[in-house]
Amino acid sequence: MQKVKKVPQRKCIACQDRDNKKELIRIVKNKEGQIFLDKTGKANGRGAYICNCSECLKKAIKSNALSRAFKMEIPEEVYESLIKEIEDDE
Question: What is the pLDDT of residue 68?
Fold first, then answer.
């Protein structure tokens, strides 16, 4: 009998939709306090997931969802670089 592998699910911090981990983008805060997009999904640090669209990132910024997820104030230039990276991928 074939064992069915469970696909990990994660929730978008902006729209609260659940999706497969591979479909979402992981944003990481490492020990040094740097915040960046994690394309591999394996970087060390605390991760938060958002849908792969700039609307969800903008919603997360507006609602301070990233600040809550990482328990810190997030600098404006971090948001700008995240938006730029996501829009480049779209």
Answer: 95
